[in-house]
Amino acid sequence: MTGTFILSLDTEIAWGTYTHLEKRAPAFDRYPELLNRLIQQLDIYEISATWAVVGHLLLSEAETTSVPQPHYRFAANPDSRRMDGHPPTWFRASYIADAIQSMRQPQDIGTHTFTHVLASEVSRELFAAQLAEAVRVHTAKGLSAPRALVYPQNRVSHTDLLPDYGLITYRGTAHDWYARLPAPLRRPAHLLDRTLGIAPPTYAPADCLRSDGLVNLPASQFLMSYDGIRQRIPTSARVKQARLGIKRAIQRGEVFHLWFHPFNLGSSDAMFDALSQILSMVWEARARGLLHVMTMTDMATEIAGLRSG
Hints:
Largest sheet: 6 strands, parallel
Radius of gyration: 19 Å
């Protein structure tokens, strides 16, 4: 059978980090370099990915916005003040769109909302305003309107709003075996899963099409960074898990969906090594006619077309 490989990239720089930003400061400061190295790898292996971009990153320093932003229960200050006291390059990086569009392999620029709002924590009205602003910024910058959404922190909510803003697909939460465990056991089980390199979930395309026409493309594997305790997980385990996911997708004719944040690459050069090994496997399987490489938007369009056909 033939499987499908999807790579989605949560392109947010500092927008997704709510506390202790200084711990990731080196990666945030190196973001242009990390982005260029990532682009080089994707070009080498001819990978088309979905870049879920926080819309605010596309603004120039002179541009302002009045789009509503939340004040989360866990935060001391409203989200509108998140940039205070931090380098503006962590929150504005219009070069990202140019870099993606200059790639040899066509890419899919989706959205990660306008300011990385947590959908499950905000009202429908605020989330709708965030989607509307993300679409507006895309088109104002000469980009195609986004068709794919990656929910910040994978907090899926308000899915019925997506079609109103031209969105046809989103990345759903992974169907991990340990998700059914009691809450205190999930983190240790998660680390055990990654350390042993247990085969990740893959998904039948037909099961990804919802009754309302949206396409849910759940995550299979987060390519772990090398922060904190994760440093102890060997690169071989990360690569093994991806290899088993690709193998399962091919054997079952299913979808293997890998994801990470580009800033994660700043945690260690070992992460570039892991990614290179995984993309090399994808390249080889595709060359043998065993694997398709698709963006979220292309995969969703194909799945929806199969139903309508």
